Amino acid sequence: MQAAGLMSGGAPIIKKYKSSATGYIAGTMFIASAANASGYISVSTTTSWAAAMGLNVDGYALAVGAPLTYSTVQGDAEALSSLIVNPDLILRLLMVGSATNAVLVDNAVLTASTDGLTVTATNTMSNLDEGTIWYTSGVNAGRSRKITSVAAAVATVISPFPGDDAVGDIALAINAGPGQAGLTMGTNLLNLLQNNTALQGAGTTGRCLDLEINGNSNSYALMTIEDPFYGAA
Amino acid sequence: MATTIIIPRKDWKPKDVVKGMEHPGKSVKRVAGGWIHDLCASRKVICLCTSCTHKFNPGRLGYIREKDFPVVQAKCDGCNTFDSRATAYFFEETYYQVRSTPAERRRNTEKSLLNLKREGTLSLGQTIRKG
Prior knowledge:
The complex is a heterodimer of chains A (233) and B (131). Chain A is mainly beta and 233 residues long.
């Protein structure tokens, strides 16, 4: 994930902390480490950002994507990680369709709509109520709506799409939308899992601020941290 | 008469403890340049205060200056002084993994638009209004 800005518009605070455990790569969220860990910060998990310390902006990467590893050998350098620790940090996460970072699932329209109020597609959207749906092809390409109810592979909206979709048009549906809380990360802890299994309200303590809807491989969610370590009440 | 030693205690909160856990930076025996080169070798973000920033040549070490955040609040890696108007330098290879800039977002939107036009969903002169 990326740092996209601060809600206050101020300057980011960057701290270099001693790291514990392994598996750190640049762009992951760090949380306060547990007792008896070798350092003060630990990597988050796919479903927990509890006591989030901040976004790791370097890691100890000797190659892009290579994890940071601390050493227990006397004389070796300490493992450090630089974090942006602002509690109002805005994070930008690529949305992916599987835990292993496949693209968002293209959902081809199976039955054409005549009123712009329903999207009857191929894949189930049963868990995507209150999420967002948009088209990437057809007459409604680029148009998005909030999902207000779902039934298997049918998503219903209240504000109709401007045109009637056609069989074969591609729609993308996700469970995120501005204001929605809870997110599940992909296994690399960098991307946001958005498919029918990633449930709203579950997962880590992040809240959706906005969406950048594009195609299935380049759509992003802007998120805020709900349980910041330095900003908690 | 026995001597009483009074030890002042502070009610440390976890936040206070962690605030004190920041890495102290280079040791007093080290030269700043060597320390910063060590940080660069492990591809760390380099933060330099207004007095030290002109001594660092980011391009030579594969670093780029953060321009979207013109100032950051950080402890200077050169002189260990906290500066609320410091400059951050990111390792170029990992920069776009951790930072999103308006230029990158603009490219992404333009790419998306171009794809729609290529598919014939939009005519070439038409712009998309997402909503």
